[in-house]
Design goal:
Number of helices: 13
Order of helices and strands: HHEHEHEHEHHEHEHEHHHEH
Helix content: 40-55%
Radius of gyration: 19 Å
Shape: globular
Largest sheet: 8 strands, parallel, barrel
Low-confidence stretches: 1-21
Strand content: 5-15%
Length: about 300
């Protein structure tokens, strides 16, 4: 671990120092899709995050995969935390009925005293749709309708509980297609990027801002992103194997995702700085190895204890 400190260059030190005054918030993902993560680890991870420096905890959503349900996981985390934001990055909305998704999200928002950020997208895994008994080919049309319906339910009186946040939980919409950004402008509170280098986020963020303005929305959309980390040589190999498995359905593109794994303090800091420069509001860094030492290492980097 100390070898990493020696290898840090002067520009990396400056990056660390400047993070303390950064306007961008940094969250940490929970290992909820990793085999080795049990309930105790997930809750311990969330408790630690509640003390800082992380401002949110995020979860992934897969049906046909190892791991826990995203909203149920965040509901459990709500009971052991007080300050940290609870975020889905992302939930595949059309896998679920509108009313059930609205109720589950409102429940998490209610018991967490208004700390839920609900990131939603289509979801690209056909097998998840097949197992859920949901139609895959028309999911785009159903998703747009669902976003409208969620707002109706949260603002209505028929299905409770009433969310703490006015109008419902903060709603972020993910994806890269033109309809994605139209949905951001019409239904969302912002955009959530599905990972990749800062320059890729910057391009998508510009599209989200443009759609926001075209829809006549006041202010600016919230802009969130995420990345993957595995700190240490042994962890890097495990993390790469996980990403190749998790994104196997994408074919050769899984290799590109695995190549973006952050494995050193330098890479983490450059990634964080890149997202901040690109205008990101909140960046969630997801572990690819279920070990508390991974949490410790990332925390030390962001707490500026590597000097």
């Amino acid at each position: 671990m100390h070898v990493d400190v020696i290898s840090l260059e002067a520009d990396t030190y400056r990056s660390i120092i400047s993070l303390a005054s950064s306007d961008m918030r940094v969250g940490i993902g929970l290992p909820n899709t990793l085999d080795a993560a049990d309930g105790d680890m997930l809750l311990s991870w969330a408790r630690r995050a509640d003390d800082g420096p992380f401002t949110s905890v995020g979860v992934f959503d897969r049906l046909v995969y190892h791991g826990t349900d995203p909203l149920a996981t965040l509901a459990a985390c709500a009971g052991v935390t007080e300050e940290v934001r609870l975020a889905t990055s992302i939930v595949a909305g059309p896998l679920r009925s509108d009313a059930l998704l609205a109720k589950k999200a409102a429940t998490v928002d209610s018991i967490s005293d208004g700390r839920l950020t609900l990131g939603l997208a289509l979801g690209a895994r056909r097998e998840d749709y097949e197992e859920a008994g949901a139609s895959f080919n028309d999911r785009g049309r159903r998703f747009s309708r669902q976003l409208h319906r969620l707002r109706e339910i949260w603002e209505g009186d028929d299905i409770g509980p009433e969310p703490v946040q006015e109008g419902g939980p903060e709603l972020l919409i993910g994806g890269q297609s033109d309809p994605t950004f139209q949905r951001v402008g019409r239904y969302g509170d912002g955009y959530i990027h599905g990972g990749g280098p800062p320059r890729a986020f910057e391009r998508q963020a510009e599209k989200a801002r443009a759609a926001w303005q075209e829809s006549g929305r006041p202010g600016e959309p919230a802009l969130w992103g995420h990345g993957y980390f595995a700190l240490g040589e042994e962890a890097a190999e495990l993390g790469r194997a996980y990403l190749l498995d998790y994104y196997e359905f994408t074919g050769p593109f899984a290799e590109r995702i695995a190549e973006g794994l952050l494995t050193t303090p330098q890479e983490v800091l450059q990634f964080v700085r890149g997202y901040e420069d690109a205008g990101c509001d909140e960046l969630i860094l997801f572990p690819t190895v279920a070990d508390m030492s991974q949490y410790d290492r990332l925390e030390r980097i962001l707490k500026n204890e590597w000097r």
